[in-house]
Amino acid sequence: MRSRLFVFLLIIVLFSNTFFSSFRTEAQTDDSTEALKLKDYVKSTFFRLQDAERMGANVTLPAQELDMALQLIDQAEGNSSDSSLLSQASSIIENVNSSIPSLIKEGESRTLSTNVSLVSTIAFIAVTCAFVYLYLPRILWSSWAKYRANWRVRPS
Amino acid sequence: MIDDEVTALVLALIVVGGMFAVSSTLLGERISEPFSEIAVLGPEMKMSDYPNSTQVNETLNLYLYVANYEAQTTYYIVYVKLGSSNTIVNATQPANAPIISSYEIILPIEQNTTLPIKLTFGKPMTDAKLIFEMWTLEKEGIQYSGKWNQLWLNITAPA
């Protein structure tokens, strides 16, 4: 009777251990899959940031945030896929992703103002050059003549 | 009425000032020769005191320095590979050796970072070549940047 009870308890312990370990393994697999998914999300967000940068956006801060998310994912991977780290990383990536349209708008207006200032500077230089070319000799020689107005020519 | 000499002087100053303005606007923030940097630093975070031996299962502490002067935000992947003295690595050919660790870093323009790295080795090896290869993530996939560092190591069995 006692040995039967012992076998029964042993089976229960073995069964529960197998059940819980399989459950834990499944949870870990889910987390590592989550980490992989997040890395893919980081990569797609990075490409969007690069596109925004080409349109003139200043992406220094969001790129640093994205790097932080990447480091959190790496930490989570080395820490049995810590789900709190992964959720932090996820919210950072989400924030960066949602800020991209406004960054693009900002970048476009910055590019426009840069182009306007560039064109106006070039126009200013061109006008200045034309002015110098047309009037500088006249000003120079008239001031030369004015400076020597009181000179007297002495017969040798 | 402004004196003519003063006018001439002002015009000359405008021309010189205008040339400076144009040159700074046109050339100011442009990176003419884009490049990236990778360096391995010793345990004291300096380019010295590199370990030349370690034991199996002992943690080797080093630092990895990466800098971005590529004129665009860049996604770097640094592969740490363990090769032998016969392993070939150069600017065009990455090492054909097993990857023992990898580090992913996103760096904005003109920024750098230094990461602590911890490496352990599973078996003893004489004249092991610890190779640090820099790769970048592009839309077409990852590409070898042609930049690498290496460290010679003797991995000994635990006493």
Draw up the topology in text:
The complex is a heterodimer of chains A (156) and B (159).
Chain A: H1 2-54, H2 60-77, H3 83-147
Helix pairs in contact in A: 1-2, 1-3, 2-3
Chain B: H1 4-27, E1 35-41, E2 53-55, E3 60-69, E4 74-83, E5 99-107, E6 111-119, E7 125-138, E8 141-156
Parallel strand pairs in B: 2-8
Antiparallel strand pairs in B: 1-3, 3-6, 4-5, 4-7, 7-8
Summary, kept brief:
With 156 residues, chain A is mainly α.
Characterize the structure shown.
Chain A is an all-alpha fold and 156 residues long. Chain A has one domain (2-115). Chain A is 87% helix and 0% strand. Chain A contains 3 helices and no strands. Chain A has helices at 2-54, 60-77, 83-147. In chain A, helix 1 (2-54) packs antiparallel against helix 2 (60-77), helix 1 packs parallel to helix 3 and helix 2 (60-77) packs antiparallel against helix 3. Chain A starts with a helix and ends in a 9-residue tail after the last helix. With 159 residues, chain B is α+β, with helices and mostly antiparallel strands. Chain B has 2 domains: 1-30; 35-156, Immunoglobulin-like, CATH 2.60.40. Chain B has 1 helix and 8 strands, in the order αββββββββ. Chain B has one helix at 4-27; strands spanning 35-41, 53-55, 60-69, 74-83, 99-107, 111-119, 125-138, 141-156. In chain B, the strands form 2 sheets. In chain B, strands 2-8-7-4-5 form a 5-stranded mixed beta sheet, with no helix packed on it. In chain B, strands 1-3-6 form a 3-stranded antiparallel beta sheet, with no helix packed on it. Chain B is elongated. The termini of chain B are far apart. The relative contact order of chain B is 0.22. The mean pLDDT of chain B is 90. The interface between A and B is medium-sized, with 34 and 28 residues.
